[in-house]
Here is the input.
Amino acid sequence: MALEMLAQGGHVMHVYDFRVKSGAGEDFIRLFDEFDRSDENLMHKTSDQIKDGVLCRDNTDPDHFYLIGEWSSEQTHRQILAQFRAQGTLPPFMGLIEGDGFVPVYATVVAPNYE
Here is the structure.
């Protein structure tokens, strides 16, 4: 059986683990998807993004989400986040996120490493 790796060794994964306001899960998904497909999404304008992020919903809590993506550079991802903040206008889906919970954790892919 052939297996396809989720990510390549040496790349960086960003992982967001966050909650949205109670009952706002469906609205969040719709607004996130609209923004993600728009020309306003600066993340899609760099070659450092290896694979577009995937939004995952917790099977036991409809207001709990994960956003996971693969990048060649943590620094570029951080720079683009700073550009969003500098613009002063956040995407509409951000208004549904509870607290300050939309902060990535970065992790380097270490295995498997079939380069």
DSSP finds two helices and four strands in the chain. The helical segments are 25-36, 74-87. The chain has one domain: 12-108.
